[in-house]
Write a structure and sequence with these properties.
Blueprint (H helix, E strand, L loop, with lengths): L5 H16 L5 H20 L3 H20 L3 H38 L17 H16 L9 H9 L12 H8 L7 H34 L6 H32 L17 H7 L2 H12 L9 H19 L3 H19 L16 H25 L3 H11 L6 H7 L2 H16 L12 H15 L14
Length: 475
């Protein structure tokens, strides 16, 4: 069930009505309804993987309690590593087994040995990377005594399977979400209005920005050998806005839907394409994942407190693992490596915390520098997206080589530019830039005008004739 589908447009009002008018007697009835709705929502993808979700939920619930109750460190470690091993084992089998098997076979082939790896013919369970990380953070926090174990199975199950964030995040923390599901929610009209506004903005970014840009980006990348250099650059920019509109649009819808039920989710995007350097970009892009790797991998490895070699090692580890999290492909790993190279100078020069303040622009020479920094950061980010989008490393390098040919074909350019793109991208950029200090551009002054205008854009330019999947469903 997609957020941009008719099925969800029917599903959401029904759950909303039952939640506030039928099952509103207590916290338990509210949570039970949301769990049933979440399991139904997930089973619409493939009901067979619902059992994997339930098993993962029970595993972390039970091991969390055993870790807390453990009378010896040996016992606590046993349950801790059992949970970690099983969770990562499932993730490895479904997501990474074929990659490692094929890569090992390729290595043997280079060494002169023939190998026929046994590959698994299974589909990737949707959302497995997200709900696995929910459970991992919960168990890790209990083991290090940062939180107490949750003994109410209904409450914990909702924390893991809450349908707005189930298949593509944000990656929630028990410290943030569990306290909210452990109390009865009361209807808040202002929060509901904010939720509807955020849903509208998320739909705009998905069906107008992402899906329109996707048509041109897909055409260019799939036929890149026949494209001129300028068209290839356009293809990269189109993909940059496609993946931003697609993923941040999903996050906006998730946050908006959750507000309808009186629950706040973690903010996952903070206008990342307005970043002034790559360190700021990673504080603004997929915030829940970046902070997860920072807290559960980077800091435990020593962070940036050690010597030069440790700082470099930890930087590359965090970005390579982040790339690998996105998919079992060398293109994602290389994308992670590129971002590590981008990030390293800021870390070594101790400038990675430079841009913590909000962006301000005025008629001053410093503002020109700010704009230039934003454009440079966007440019190098687009360059890295080439590897993320390409089907192989060889394709990515060939794509880049063809850009450097500096060829230009006027007729090809006309085919890759459209009236719709020329209209919708400036609207997105201007609205986000003028409202960059707000959680959602449709909040604040002139909200009604902005909402009505955005709805008109959705009706005029939205791609409703295709049921487009969200990109991050595959991760």
């Amino acid at each position: 069930m997609f957020f941009n589908s008719i099925a969800f447009a029917v599903f959401l009002p029904i759950v909303f009505f039952l939640y506030w008018f039928v099952f509103n007697k207590s916290k338990s009835t509210q949570n039970t309804l949301l769990i049933v709705a979440s399991y139904y929502f997930y089973s619409c993808w493939d009901w067979r993987f619902l059992f994997l979700l339930v098993f993962s939920t029970f595993l972390d619930y039970y091991t969390g309690i055993q870790i807390e109750k453990g009378k010896s460190e040996k016992s606590r470690k046993f349950w801790f590593w059992l949970s970690i091993s099983v969770n990562l084992g499932f993730l490895g089998i479904f997501k990474y087994y074929n990659f490692f098997a094929s890569s090992f076979a390729d290595l043997l082939d280079v060494l002169g040995f023939k190998a026929s790896p046994i590959l698994l013919n299974v589909i990737l369970p949707v959302g497995i990377s997200f709900y696995t990380f929910h459970g991992l953070s919960y168990v890790i926090d209990i083991y290090y005594k940062r939180i107490k174990a949750e003994y109410n199975f209904i409450d914990y199950s909702l924390f893991v399977s809450y349908f707005p964030l189930l298949v593509a995040g944000p990656i929630e923390r028990a410290t943030h979400l569990l306290p909210q599901v452990k109390v009865k929610r009361e209807f808040n009209l202002e929060k509901a209005k904010e939720g509807i506004s955020q849903i509208i903005w998320g739909l705009f970014k998905k069906v107008v920005i992402a899906d329109n840009c996707a048509m041109y980006a897909n055409n260019i990348f799939e036929n890149y050998t026949s494209m001129d250099s300028f068209s290839l650059v356009l293809g990269t920019v189109y993909f940059a806005f496609q993946i931003y509109g697609d993923f941040s649009g999903y996050s906006d819808i998730a946050l908006g839907v959750s507000k309808l039920f009186g629950i706040d989710l973690l903010k996952n995007f903070n206008y990342p394409y307005f970043s002034r350097d790559i360190a700021e970009f990673w504080r603004r892009w997929h915030i829940s994942l970046s902070s997860w790797f920072r807290d559960y991998l980077y800091i435990p490895l020593g962070g940036s407190k050690g010597g030069l070699s440790m700082k470099i090692r930890n930087t590359f580890v965090i970005f390579v693992v982040s790339g690998f999290w996105h998919g079992a492909s060398w293109t994602y790993i290389f994308w992670g490596l590129i971002n590590a190279v981008y990030f390293l100078p800021s870390l070594l020069l101790k400038r990675n915390q430079k841009y913590l303040q909000e962006i301000t622009v005025s008629w001053h020479i410093s503002s020109l520098k700010t704009i230039v920094n934003i454009l440079i950061t966007f440019g190098i980010t687009c360059f890295a997206w080439i590897f993320f989008r390409s089907e192989s490393l060889s394709m990515a390098f060939d794509y880049i080589r063809r850009i450097t040919d500096f060829s230009f074909n006027r007729s090809s350019l006309k085919e890759q530019l459209s009236f719709i793109i020329i209209i919708i991208l400036p609207y997105l950029i201007l609205l986000e830039w003028n409202n960059r200090n707000k959680e959602c551009p449709l909040f604040g002054q002139l909200s009604r005008i902005k909402i009505v205008t955005t709805i008109i854009f959705i009706l005029l330019f939205g791609e409703f004739n295709i049921q487009s999947k969200f990109i991050y469903f595959q991760f």
